[in-house]
Amino acid sequence: xxxxxxxxxxxxxxxxxxxxxxxxxxxxxxxxxxxxxxxxxxxxxxxxxxxxxxxxxxxxxxxxxxxxxxxxxxxxxxxxxxxxxxxxxxxxxxxxxxxxxxxxxxxxxxxxxxxxxxxxxxxxxxxxxxxxxxxxxxxxx
Length: 141
Fold this sequence. Notes:
Elements: E1 10-17, H1 21-36, H2 46-64, E2 70-77, E3 81-88, H3 96-101, H4 106-117, E4 121-126, E5 133-140
Antiparallel strand pairs: 1-2, 2-3, 3-5, 4-5
Helix pairs in contact: 1-2, 2-4
């Protein structure tokens, strides 16, 4: 994927308390964002994107809530790309590629399998202060 995130014209940000209900609300918001941006619910990327998002928000709620009272989802899209990030203020950065090789991660393995299977990318971007991170998923439309 060569689309640069800063060039994607559509944006939306959602910040929620890091609690179990965040997963449902983030998923419902993602469905609304797809609709508002004209991305058909039947598009083959939509269901996997919803599952990926759910897994990432679940991970933030389960593993980062002690240090991060909120989880933020950032959405961006263009005509051929949908991207989103799940951000929390926990410094741990999981090894994304270890999840693919089977040496780590449960739900993160599912995230990576789906992302790569769709021809997408996944990267972790640490906060400048080293006390948080965002996991960015970029998928073709």
